[in-house]
Amino acid sequence: MKKIVFVFTFSLLGILLLAGCTPTTMINDLNVQTKVDQTFTLNLDSNPTTGYQWQLKYDPVYLEMTERLYQEPKTDLVGAGGKDNFTFKALQEGKTEINFSYAKTWEEEPIETKVYEVTIE
Fold first, then answer.
1. Distance of CA 69 to CAs 57, 88, 92, 117, Å?
2. Confidence at residue 4, expressed as pLDDT on a 0 to 100 scale
């Protein structure tokens, strides 16, 4: 009987703890929903050995970029691409965009662009 009460108590406690856990940031395709003072990371395919790099524009009133980190590929293949990880902190409520362009610095036209719509609550 004590074992049943023990299992029931811990099961109930676990359910109550999980019920209070809600994600503070949701990233769905090119849409980001977050809250003030929360951070989120966008991961973009990248291969700096080709001369291409991600250039970005964002509004510093709403967002602060706290980290930019290149993640090496998990292979020994020469020239394999990895990921560029951009971490931002939401500063105030509102809507804004992060514009990414993948280009060589000496060329005018990017080969890829991405625009993330960011909603901060």
1. 17, 12, 24, 21
2. 47
SS3 of residue 11 by DSSP? helix
In which residue are the tokens 């676990």 written? 14
Distance CA 119, CA 121 (A): 7
pTM given for the model? 0.77
pLDDT in tens, 87-120: 999 999 999 999 999 999 899 899 999 999 999 9
In this structure, what token pair is assigned to residue 40?
């989120």
- Token representation of residue 5: 């009460």
- From start to end of 4-111, where are the E strands? 26-28, 31-34, 39-46, 52-58, 63-71, 82-90, 94-104
Residue carrying structure tokens 């980190």: 69
Query: Distance between the two ends of the chain, CA-based, in angstroms?
Result: 48
CATH of 24-120, one of 3.40.50.2300, 3.40.1170.60, 1.10.10.10, 2.60.40.2020: 2.60.40.2020
Phi, psi values for residue 15, rounded to 5°: -65, -45
* Domain regions of the chain by residue span: 24-120
